[in-house]
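Hey team,

Filing this mostly as a record. A colleague (T.K.) asked me to run one chain through the structure pipeline before their review meeting, and I want the input and output archived in the tracker in case anyone asks later how it was produced. No errors, nothing strange. Just documentation.

Input sequence:
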Amino acid sequence: MSGTEEATAVRQTSDVTLPDHLVSRVADRLPYTEFDSPDEYVAFVLEEVLYHVEEDTDEEAFDTDEQAEVEERLESLGYLGE
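Output structure:
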C-alpha cells in the first residue's frame, strides 16, 4: 500500500459501539501510551490482535493433502466410519 493509500485508509472510519467500562479503561491508560484518543488506542490494539489471529490461522490451515492424511489416520483408528 502506498503512503497515499495508507493515509486514505486511515481516514476512512466506521463507528463501533463499546461498553462504557471498556472505553473508561482505555481512557485511563492513555497517559501511559503514545495515543491521543481512545479511538486511536482501540484501533491499534484491534490491528495487533487481528494480525496475530490471522497469522495463527494461516499457520494452522490444512491443505487438501494434509486434510486427507488426517482423515485416513482417524479412519484407521476407528474414529471415522468407512
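Quick notes for T.K.: Helices lie at 3-11, 20-29, 38-60, 64-76. Residues 36-82 form one domain.
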